[in-house]
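USER:
Working in pairs, take the chain set out below, taking as long as you need, and write a paragraph about the fold.
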Amino acid sequence: MSINNHTNKSYTHIKCKVITVSDTRTEADDKSGKMIMQLLEDAGHYTANYVIVKDEIMEIQTEILKATEAEAIILNGGTGISPRDVTIEAVKPLLTKEISGFGELFRMLSYTEDIGAAAMLSRAIAGTVGECAVFAMPGSTGAVVLGMNKLILPELSHVVSELNKKKQNM
C-alpha cells in the first residue's frame, strides 16, 4: 500500500487549539504561537482557541482538558530540561496513547537540519487524549516551523482520520 493510499486526506479544516507554555510570553510577543496558527490556516485548518499558560502542570492540564471540541491540540514551549519546563510532565499522564515516533523524528530532524547535538535536550511528545490528537514541541520559532511543516501538517488529517474510525464504523 502506498503512502498516498494509506493517508486519509478527507479530514480537512481541522479544529485546533494552540497552547503556548511560557512564564514570559504575551500575545503581543508570542511569535511561535502566531506561527502555529498561521501555518494551520495556510494548510486549510483553523484555530478554534488560543491561550498562553504559565509553566505550571495544573494550568497546562486544565487547558488540555478544556479543549473538548478540538480535534487537535498543539502546544509549544516548556519541553526542555530546565526545572521550569513541565509541559511533558503535564501532558504525558493525560495521554490515552503515545505517538512515540513524533518525538523521535522531531529530535532526528532537529539534529540533522537545525541544532545538532542540542536536539537531545528536546522532550517533544505527541499522542492522543481521548479522541483528540496532542502535539507538544519546543517554543522556538525554528522548532515550531520544523515540527509543523515536517511532521504535524503532513500527518494531521491522517491522525484525525484514525481517531475518528470508531465513529465512522458505528
The chain has one domain: 11-168. The chain is about 45% helix and 20% strand. The mean pLDDT is 92.
